[in-house]
Amino acid sequence: MRRFDTSLSLKGLLSGESRKPTLVLLWAPLVLTTWRYYAAMGFFTGGPASGVLGNAAQAAELYVFLSSFVLLGLVSLAIVRLVFREPLAAYGLAVGDWRFGLKALAVMAPVMVVLGALAARAPEFLAQYPLYRGACASAPAFLAHAAAYLTYYIGFEVFFRGFVQFGLRESLGDWNAILVQTALSCLVHIGKPSGEIYGAIVGGLVFGIVAFRSRSLLYVIVAHWVLGVALDLFICLG
């Protein structure tokens, strides 16, 4: 019983080597729950600010993208700098091993385009994407949509492959850190097409490995963005 009591002691939970992994694992469910409920298009649509652009659907999409950028990205980076007092480069905010990164991107990007083309044929993806249907109206509209979409992927990758994965590396080791972020990034896809959820498992592993090997988030951000833009583009062209 004493061993059991000791293992559950709160002493040292937020100090020493336990402090960072504890904060990472506490922040993750809190921010993801907030993001899932209050950064969704349904939450924004119909609100007083939904017509700020004169187009409620477009405003809702921008709200989703910027919520990811701020909640998942900027706030997590603020914790790294202000709470952990560590450099952002230690969490993948650096060019890193650009030779490996560019080689990995050269392999990943075409695969992302092919996956986007295949998914664009599936009814469940056609029903879900693009988030803003008006993106298909014209080339300028699609380019604006694609540019805004990048902010979403920056926030997403900074949180999962950056804050969570790099944040747990010292305490859990490389593979366990990758597996934790893969599990979390997979779970937030629940409600999306089943192919996207299973793809998130593979993507989490691949992106996690590339992030660690390149010591940078840059290449996985671009690869993930290419996937999203390619899917929307093929749907618009279909």
Task: Describe, in plain words, how this protein is organized in 3D.
The structure is a single chain. This protein starts with a helix and ends with a helix. The chain has 10 helices and no strands. With 238 residues, it is mainly α. It has one domain (18-237).
Give the secondary structure arrangement, pairings included:
Blueprint (H helix, E strand, L loop, with lengths): L1 H6 L11 H20 L2 H4 L11 H27 L15 H22 L3 H6 L10 H34 L1 H14 L6 H21 L3 H20 L1
Helix pairs in contact: 2-7, 4-7, 5-9, 5-10, 7-8, 7-9, 7-10, 8-9
What is the compact description of this entry?
This protein is an all-alpha fold. Helix content is 73%, strand content 0%. The mean pLDDT is 91.
